[in-house]
Amino acid sequence: MTRVTLCPVCSDPESPITDQADSFPFCSERCRDRDLGGWLRNQYKIGSRPVESDDFAEGLSPEPEIER
Ligand SMILES: [Zn+2]
């Protein structure tokens, strides 16, 4: 089953993405690069320690936890 979603970067309804697209979940490589750049900058700002894979498994929230 093919899922169609909108790009989380530009949310362009003219550019729906299928989960089979090379750039999924983004509409294009350009948006993927933009999102990756923003993510890296965010990590850098929070930045006291690298994110460990355990954090991904436990906290499925997309919001970064600033205080613990
Ligand atoms: Zn996009």
Rg over C-alpha atoms, rounded to the nearest angstrom: 14 Å
Q: Which ligands occur here?
A: zinc ion
Count the DSSP helices.
2
Which oligomeric form is depicted? Answer: single chain
Give the distance, in angstroms, between the N- and C-terminal Cα atoms.
Answer: 39 Å
Helix content: 25-40%
Give the amount of beta strand, in percent: 5-15%
Précis, in short:
Helices cover 35% and strands 6% of the residues. The chain is mostly helical and 68 residues long.
Descriptive overview:
This protein has 68 residues and is mostly helical. It has a domain at 4-49. The protein has 2 helices and 2 strands, in the order ββαα. It starts with a strand and ends in a 10-residue tail after the last helix. The protein binds zinc ion. The site of zinc ion (ZN) has 9 residues, from loops.
